Amino acid sequence: xxxxxxxxxxxxxxxxxxxxxxxxxxxxxxxxxxxxxxxxxxxxxxxxxxxxxxxxxxxxxxxxxxxx
Length: 68
Prior knowledge:
Order of helices and strands: HH
Number of helices: 2
Largest sheet: none
Helix content: 55-70%
């Protein structure tokens, strides 16, 4: 079973007999990649915030152990 969104598009093209060069497939690919990017940012935001952005405020932030 493919894990990446790009692999899902390739499998869907093969199974459904879709044209990979059609504008609709390009739109689907862009939407899937954008959704994947937002999901990763949303999932890791707290971890990134405490690791990389806490120094900017000057206030020490305790690290959330669930985000590791």
